[in-house]
Amino acid sequence: MAKLFPGAVLCFATFREALNAVEIKGLARIVLRGRKSLRTGKLLNPVLILTGKEPLSQFRWDRQLHEAFGDKAKYAEMFYMRRDIEAM
Asked: Tell me: the pLDDT tens digits for 52-64?
């Protein structure tokens, strides 16, 4: 995919609230490869991973999302501050 679509954001989505360990391990390899830099200064293929927690809160961070993410909320909230996949 990276060779065919350099610079494209790869999106993986599920309606489940969390990914299992096998999914996380498989996606981690794709994420690391996608972080390579292109000559333009952009990433080769940034990766966006959405679970059932995010789709309805695309443009705002609310209390419900904070409760859903628990101790990882501070990391998830960073995405909403700039509203930009490349901010991650």
From this structure: 876 655 545 566 6
